[in-house]
Structure prediction request, 622 residues.
Amino acid sequence: MGVILQVENLTKSFGYDLLFGDISFGLDEGDKVGLIAKNGTGKSTLLNLLAGVDTPDSGTIIYRNNLRIGYLQQIPSFQGAKTVIDACLEGDNPAAMAVLNYENAVSSGDPDAMTAAIQAMDNNHAWDYEERFKQILSKLKIDDFHQPVTELSGGQIKRVALAKILIDEPQFLILDEPTNHLDIDMIEWLENYLKRSNMTLLMVTHDRYFLDNICTRIIEMDQQEIFTYDGNYNYYLEKRAERIEAQNAQVEKARNLLRTELEWMRRQPQARQHKAQYRIDAFYDLKERARGIRERGDVRLNVKSAYIGKKIFTAHNVCKAYGDKIILQDFEYTFARYEKLGIVGDNGVGKSTFIKLLLGEVPCDSGHFELGKTLRFGYYSQEGMRLDEDKKVIDAVRDIAEYIVFDEKTHYTAAQFLNLFLFNNNEQQKYIHTLSGGEKRRLYLAMVLMGKPNFLILDEPTNDLDISTLEILEDYLSKFNGCVIIVSHDRFFMDRTVDHTFVFLGDGVVKDFPGNYSEYRAWKDYHDQLAAQEARANAKPKEKVHYNVRDNSNKLSFKEKKELEQLTIEIEELTAEKQQLDTLFASGEVITDMDVKSARYSQLKELLEEKEMRWLELSEKE
Prediction:
């Protein structure tokens, strides 16, 4: 264990905005660190600096010699890559290039290319690399290796970028929002993968279960400083509360002292020339410290909803399909007043389509939704609102309304309303294109709530929002006097906000579970175990295989002699079959079932290696 990265006095600004100043910290080999900060305070900027994508204003970043770094950016891109496999295997790694050529040869069916590719796989010991490559892509549900990159969605590009980094196995892994665009099964697989890995990890994520289960250290960026906590996310919450409490106590003490000093400074002006200069200087220092009392600086979501009637909506035999892909099949449901529903399921099973059917943005194939007359939808979509990037924040809000009136007692100007969402006067004058991704999402949330909805539909609301904003949003939803539908892969967020769950199982099947996600998962795991036990109990008993205990001497037992003879025959047969395939691949003939034969070739290599090792083991005792 040693230091792999040391940051000394790092400073970065954008224009007049100081993101962080003179921060210092180090990372040891094997550390798994979560980076936490509010949106707009420089999390992604710091990751860019550490990955070498950006340069600091001042300070140094010192890496261990020959450190291999992998960086998953928040919005990755693949310049020049034509297909998924090109994107995953680009670079100068010989094993990766061998796998790329092998997969392309298999796809092309060219026997000459196949022979050369197999030889290159052998020379570069790339068969294990290929196995890891396919396993990771499979876990991230990337099935078409030869799909053009230009046809991929933003979420698919993120998953391909993540796959490439994991395949490369860097020593230091930097992840910016890795769980965005992953379904829950993928998140749980990635969580387990990173926990088992020896890689040093630094990541930014809003997923609090993910943070708590993986991280051994938390680094918080707050008030342009760095605070480090040696523990997981739960430990960080406890110690952060203690730090803020202690900080506020110190500031309150400074305020009390300031009152005394202020009285002293206000004495007759003619006496001031006799005051000690050190005491005057101390007064101004004390004045600055007294201003530093900790303010939470959180979004204050005390926005009220419009009245909602007793009739919400009813689904009558709704059906929807795209070709052979069934989204809903004879779906019926009556939504209750003040209901809070969570929707989970794999990517592509139709969660977002369900919402668009409800909103009338997509027509039903048959059946219909009957909506209540008082419904006022507020839709926070996964794609986000299309904002004019050249406008200022305040102007974008004023385009919707100069004044926002919720009732006789509650009304705001556009500027006052933005203040509720943590946009102070200076930030309201910023152009939208200068905002961070999280700040844009916060602005989008403000615009959705401006419409005083009584039925909120939130499609992946946790993407790009900081944890502080999520905590306040969770609290707001718990008190929201209306109905809510939430589609999210954030397990913590779902557990905090919903009272029952629609589980989209695919092929039009929707299960209504009376609980949150963790309760559903516990129920599912329990029933899966029962089903597995029942399957084992009903299975036919296998014929027992009896193994001889080997004699400690160097003599072969009778059965071992027979095994050696059989191995000799099998090795000869497998070698002959392998040579036939070598000849076929080199013949130049058109091979119609190239995929089958190449898979058999790989299987033959593994069998030969296994049986030859056993043959050598036995032959040494002969």
Summary: The chain is about 45% helix and 20% strand.
